[in-house]
């Protein structure tokens, strides 16, 4: 049973932020990630013939000086760049995909992928974490999964369950679609919260994307909730029709159409503080759901947890 002082569940931006801040102060941690890579919703899907789609977070912004310094550092390495999308807003994207941001933060960290945690329990000396046939021990446990998933993992009798259950997150269905080069590109981005397709973006207009006329469409929370359990191929067909109507494109010119289901995409009601912790200071819970549905909020939550751990260690 491997033992670590600190185990972090989740290699999204919150988990990576926490681990990176700790590492910068000489404190090691182990990150357990259920997926094949890092980043969580800051992700890039690769398809045939060099197509790429940022099917989660579309861009990041930097409001605080501390996060701005991190973003500038990433930009200086070429892993991020400004995206001129015509909105006039300062939007930053990973290059050549949004996942480059997470990969930069993860460099040199101890991340084990393919480790879906299905049980945790407290002992007199800390915590035991179970992932299939694997178990891990630690003195300090940080969980960065969405609030609902964290609540299920801890169980309804846990003292922090009530706080977790009051957080509200909404789903998002995403379409990744590519058209022939002769099809129209009437805009780079369009946001309309009243439309079924609340966000549409020409993904290939971002820096260093190699294949032209690749689009992302993200449905609003109500439509996404109604169709959340539908077959993803059916969802892709339905969203493709809607996207073609808004672009004025021929549906027969689509050469790639895949949908993705994000169960916990956006934060409708946040916790209102950077993290939760137990009285013993052995358990910390964080994520964008603590503050706001933005990448910077996810980073701030992880950084705040790390700062608290450093002060109490």
Q: Mind explaining what this structure looks like?
A:
The chain has 313 residues and is of the alpha+beta class. It folds into 2 domains: 3-167 and 270-312, FAD/NAD(P)-binding domain (3-Layer(bba) Sandwich); 170-267, Alpha-Beta Complex (Polyamine Oxidase, Chain A, domain 2). The protein contains 8 helices and 17 strands. Strands 1, 2, 7, 8, 9, 10, 16 and 17 form an 8-stranded mixed beta sheet that branches. The model has no long low-confidence stretch (mean pLDDT 97).
Please provide a brief summary of the model:
This protein is an alpha+beta fold and 313 residues long.
Keywords summarizing the entry:
five-stranded antiparallel β-sheet, 2 domains, eight-stranded mixed β-sheet, 17 strands, FAD/NAD(P)-binding domain, globular, Polyamine Oxidase, Chain A, domain 2, 313 residues, 27% helix, alpha+beta
